[in-house]
Design brief:
Number of strands: 9
Strand content: 5-15%
Distance between the termini: 85 Å
Strand order of the largest sheet: 3-4-5-2-1-8-9
Radius of gyration: 27 Å
Helix content: 40-55%
Largest sheet: 7 strands, mixed
Shape: elongated
Number of helices: 23
Length: 424
C-alpha cells in the first residue's frame, strides 16, 4: 500500500534538468517543492507535462541562485513572484510563496511569504493545494489526495469566498470537474455558482478562453456543460450557445479528439457567421482560431459541396460527383478543414455514424499534390498580367483535379493552351 504522505519517485522528478533546478534552489538553504498540476497528475498516474515549483525565497534570490548554477532565467511574472528557469531546453515555472492582501474578483494584490500554509490557503481547489519535496514527501493540508482519489472537486475553504476572490475560479471548477470529477457537484454549490455566474462577464476574454477551451478538451465535457447550462452559467459568457444536442452527436462519432476544442465550440453555436464572430471577439480567440470558427459557421461553397459524400447515394447527390467535390475540397482546404466540416455537418444533420467511415478514411489517406504549372506558364502564352492569369490557371487546376491529379506537366500545358485558345 502506498504511503499517503509520500509520492512515489517518478522519472520527471529525477530527470537531470529537474535535479539541476532543484539543487540550485536548495543551495539557498531553503526547501523548494513541486506544486500544482505535476503533483496532482503524478498521483493519478497521468503524464506530467509541466513542472511547477514553489519556494520561500524571493524572486531576486531565486534568479541569483539559478544564474549561479548556470541555468537560464526568464523573468516571466516578477510582480506575482514568478520566474522561468530553462534547463536542458525544458522550462520550469518557479513562484515565490504568496498570500493575498487584497482581491476584487479579477486580480489580487499579493505579498511574498515564507509560510507554506498561507500559500496553500490561497489556492482554489484542495488537490491543487498539495506540494511535494524533491525526495517525495507529500504535503496535503486540505485532503486533496483523498478528493482526487474519489473524483471529488472541492474548493479550499468556503466556495463563495474563494470565487469572490477570483471569479475565474467558477469556470476553473467546471474545467477540473470535466477532467477529474466523478462525484457530481452539490446542489448548494451549484446554486452559489449560479448566483455568481454574471460576474464572469467582468473577466478578460483571454482568461475565459483559456479555461473554457481546456474544459472543452476533456474526454467527455457533456455532463459538466449540462450542469452549466441548467444553472445559467454557460449563458453568462456564451449566450449564443444553442444547446448540447449537436455536440452530443459529434462526441458520439468518437472522431472529435480532445485536441479539437474549437470544433467542439462550433458545435455549441448556431451555423451563423455573426454569432461566431461575436464569440471569437468576446473570448479573444487567436487569429487562426477565429478563422476556423468562422469557417465552421459558414463554410465556403466547395466545402459545402464536399458534404455530398455523406448522402450515401449514387447520382447527383452522391457517387462520382460527390467524390470529385471531396477531392476539390481536400486540395484547396486540406484534410483537417474538410474533416472538421464533415463531422460538424453530420452532427447537425443527425447523419448516421455508418456514413462517416468511408469519407473519413478517404480524408485520412489524403496526400497533397503539387500542381505542375504556375503563373509564368500562363504569361508565356502572351497573356497580359492581371485577373485573366489567375482565371486560366484556376480552370486548368479544376480540370487537373477532375482528372484525379493524373495529368503531368505536358498534358496540363496542353489543356492550358486549349483553354486560352477557346477563350481568345
Amino acid at each position: 500500500m502506498s504511503d499517503p504522505q509520500r509520492l512515489e519517485i517518478q522519472d520527471w522528478m529525477t530527470a537531470p534538468e529537474t535535479r539541476q533546478v532543484m539543487t540550485a534552489l536548495a543551495a539557498g538553504g531553503r526547501e523548494a517543492r513541486f506544486v500544482g498540476g505535476c503533483v496532482r497528475d503524478a498521483l493519478l498516474g497521468r503524464p506530467v507535462k509541466d513542472v511547477d515549483i514553489a519556494t520561500p525565497d524571493d524572486p531576486a534570490k531565486v534568479m541569483a541562485l539559478l544564474r549561479d548554477a548556470g541555468i537560464k532565467v526568464v523573468p516571466t511574472g516578477l510582480d506575482h513572484g514568478t520566474v522561468t528557469a530553462v534547463a536542458g531546453h525544458r522550462p520550469f515555472e518557479i513562484t515565490t510563496l504568496r498570500e493575498d492582501r487584497e482581491t476584487d474578483g479579477r486580480r489580487a494584490k499579493v505579498a511574498f511569504t515564507d509560510d507554506w500554509q498561507a500559500d496553500a490557503s490561497r489556492r482554489d481547489l484542495t488537490f491543487n493545494a498539495m506540494s511535494c519535496s524533491a525526495d517525495g514527501r507529500l504535503f496535503d493540508p486540505f485532503g486533496g489526495r483523498a478528493d482526487l482519489a474519489a473524483g471529488r472537486v472541492r474548493f479550499v475553504g468556503d466556495p463563495k469566498t474563494r470565487i469572490e476572490e477570483d471569479y475565474l475560479r467558477l469556470l476553473r471548477f467546471f474545467r477540473f470537474q470535466a477532467h477529474y470529477g466523478r462525484v457530481p457537484p452539490e446542489p448548494s454549490l451549484l446554486s452559489v455558482m449560479a448566483a455568481l455566474a454574471p460576474r464572469l462577464r467582468t473577466l478578460s476574454g483571454e482568461r475565459l478562453r483559456a479555461e473554457f477551451l481546456k474544459l472543452l478538451a476533456a474526454e467527455d465535457p457533456l455532463p459538466v456543460l449540462a450542469a452549466m447550462q441548467e444553472h445559467g452559467i454557460l449563458a453568462a459568457f456564451l449566450p449564443e450557445a444553442e444547446g448540447l444536442a449537436v455536440l452530443a452527436r459529434l462526441l458520439a462519432f468518437r472522431q472529435s479528439a480532445p485536441e479539437d476544442p474549437i470544433l467542439r465550440l462550433a458545435a455549441l453555436l448556431p451555423p451563423d457567421a455573426k454569432a461566431a464572430a461575436a464569440v471569437a471577439e468576446r473570448l479573444r480567440l487567436s487569429g487562426a482560431e477565429s478563422l476556423v470558427l468562422g469557417r465552421l459557421a459558414e463554410p465556403p461553397p466547395d466545402l459545402r459541396q464536399a458534404r455530398r459524400v455523406l448522402d450515401g447515394q449514387e447520382g447527383p447527390s452522391g457517387g462520382p460527383d460527390a467524390c470529385l467535390a471531396l477531392r476539390f475540397a481536400l486540395y484547396h482546404h486540406g484534410p483537417k478543414a474538410v474533416r472538421e466540416d464533415l463531422l460538424l455537418d453530420a452532427a447537425r444533420c443527425a447523419v448516421p455514424a455508418g456514413r462517416l467511415g468511408k469519407p473519413l478514411a478517404q480524408i485520412a489517406g489524403w496526400r497533397q499534390r503539387t500542381f505542375p504549372l504556375n503563373g509564368s506558364d500562363v504569361l508565356a502564352l502572351g497573356v497580359t498580367a492581371g485577373p485573366e492569369v489567375g482565371e486560366l490557371l484556376r480552370r486548368t487546376v479544376d480540370w487537373w483535379i477532375a482528372e484525379d491529379f493524373a495529368p503531368k506537366r505536358a498534358a496540363c500545358l496542353a489543356e492550358l493552351q486549349r483553354l486560352y485558345r477557346d477563350g481568345a
